[in-house]
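Structural prep section.
Before we set up the soaks we want a predicted structure of the protein with guanosine-5'-diphosphate in place, mainly to decide which crystallisation condition to try first. Input record follows.
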Amino acid sequence: MKHSGIATEMSKKRLSLLINNLKVIDLVFELVDARCPLSTRSSVVERLIAGKRQLIVLNKADLADPAATKQWLFHFKQEGKASLAVDSRRGDGFRNVWEDLNHYAEELSQTLQKKGRRARELRTAVLGIPNVGKSTFLNKIVGRRSAATGNRPGITKGPQWIHLQGSLLILDTPGVLPPQLKHEEAVFKLAAIGALDKRKYNSENVGEKLIKFLEARYPGSFSGYFGIPPDALSLEILAQKKKFLLPNGLFDLHRAANFLLDSFQNGKFGSFTLELPNEKCSLTT
Ligand SMILES: Nc1nc2c(ncn2[C@@H]2O[C@H](COP(=O)(O)OP(=O)(O)O)[C@@H](O)[C@H]2O)c(=O)[nH]1
Ligand SMILES: [Mg+2]
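Run finished without errors. Recording the tokens verbatim:
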């Protein structure tokens, strides 16, 4: 699989623009995919949001294994990081998001009051690698509760702010972070959940690996859904089953792989998580 550095994934200019925008932010929503909450974190994120309040949002929780999501929430809690799980498409979990937001806004107002400073809105922003659902999350949170957008005095440069209910502002454009592509395992997971450009991986390799992974972790998941004997798992059998044939009569493995990945990404045969907190796949190893 092809590995590329941060510089090629994200121009220095875009990164410095993001750093500049983040200067005035109090709270960052760091969006990750609940199916692989570590691999969908960006290796630059801790550096970017150092010193700010951070809320890790495990998005697409509807596609993840609920027991694994619980483990992740517990894991982040133990690390002293606030986290919650949501389904941004349906809006599940957003009551907790609002509760947390109002809590932080109240906290900010008390801090400012103690310092004898004037009250102001809590400034928030959404960050994450491509395709974790930043825009969907932002749209859900803005929803009908938003007011007119506009520049604020003192922070007039860059993107626009959206005024949410209560004492809250959110940046209208999510910050896009570079995905971590240094490790083959992370590339596999990102490809499997559909967070990578198709040109960056071989879908047959990813498909074969995903079949093995799912049957080992969730026995019967793949084989049961497609009616394939568990001892004969392969893309070829899937192609045979689905009658995916090439003009020359051979099985179309590429089509089978894309069909499998598409089905997996849309939760067609269940909700599965690709990594657990105790598996020790950190950002740096
Ligand atoms: N099932 C599910 N799909 C989601 C969720 N959030 C976003 N999506 C889908 O994921 C894809 C990428 O979402 P988008 O908001 O464009 O991601 P962005 O690139 O991070 O802005 C879209 O097809 C969304 O409909 C979610 O919570 N659950
Ligand atoms: Mg987007």
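Observations: Residues 1-9, 145-156, 281-285 have pLDDT under 50 and may be disordered.
Flagged for discussion at group meeting.
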